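SEQUENCE-TO-STRUCTURE ENTRY
===========================
What this section holds: a protein sequence and its matching fold, both as plain text.
Tokens: labelled as protein backbone structure tokens, with as many entries as the chain has residues.
Question of interest: how does this chain fold, as expressed in backbone structure tokens?
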Amino acid sequence: VQPIEPSLVSTLKARHDMYHSVVSTSALVYVQHPSAQPFNSSVTITLPCPPNPEKKRQGDETEHARAISATVKRVATAYHPWAVSASVRKNGENLSDTLKLLGHRSKEEGWKVFDDVLIQNARNGLVSFELNEHLESFVVIRFLFVLENTYLLLFAQALEEAVCSTMTNVILYRKRENPYKIVVLLSASKELTCKLQNLHEEGYFGPPEPTQQFPLREGEQIHFRFRGNIFASENGKDFGKVYRLIFHSQRKPRLELQIKEVDEFGNHSSPHYKGTAVFYKVTREMITKKWEQPLPYGEYQHQSPLCKLALTLPKHEKLINRPRSTKRISSDSSEALWDNLLYWLAEELAEDNTSLLALCLPVRRSVLQLVRLKCPDNLTHQIYELLCCWKKTLPRSADKLQLLSRYLQKSGRSDLSEELHFKWQNKVFT
């Protein structure tokens, strides 16, 4: 006996308007018969099938008003005899519902509507009917207004599929104090908020955010591996393996992994190392007899990934200890002053969202592309890099201050041109 949660019926109704008439269902019953012989006599089946809540509320109101309605009838008889024929429960007539039995004799035949089976309402939300033949599975559906058998069959199929699977999300969070430590787990969608709160209490946070929800059946597996410049390990030694999570609604599938960069010199144009966790769904039919072993990657490489999650790792600045003879010594003490001046100018221009092309500097287009690639998200750094590239192209004898002042005036920033001369003369760059 597979219970059907009301939330599941509500979800199916929300997805498909044609199921709007459905009020509730009984449990989904699966039967194993000891023999294929026909029944000698009919079997009475009694199942819970929640009544229409609106009708129940109307019934409660009717019970509460019964004494009042009796008085109204007596008064109406005395003054308006024609009023006796009116029903005091007129409003409740629109709330009458219908019960239908659906089932199938075998999976090969599929679902069928048994219109000839009479289903009776019993007390406390129970329904009963007589069964004269073997059915492998059946369910009772309660609905308000007329619903075609075609839609009833589609609803039964969707209900069976939904019952056999659970909407699930993949969560991949990292430790706030240690971004190289991550946790990967499966969570039923209805428990997602609670799971995220528990992870926050353990010190795990995103990004990335959880994946979109997808259906999983009991025993199905999620296999995942890492691509790009990030890979993972369970023990800190064996990196680059395929990892597996087995879905069970009563268990909490979870993996704690360590991640690191594949190439420390990779992603040179980004302040982070970048990688992707790619997840694949492995159905029970695909699982080999040696179920404890992950499938070879080639077994599901041909299918599209179930979902992907992007990862980043921060880069650490490397301290290079050079021999004393190789340390770089600036031959021009004014270089440091120029760096400060150019960075101040970049900050001033970035505040007004000045584009690189608007600076009118005589640099090649390839230099502009390189600067944008090197600093994709920081306009101040882009302008600073562009100014540095421009300065490097000038001969040592060039009057850099005069040239830069001229380009600023040409760009419509005469105010910065004057301030530039003032700061250079006074050596103040804040």
Summary: The mean pLDDT is 77.
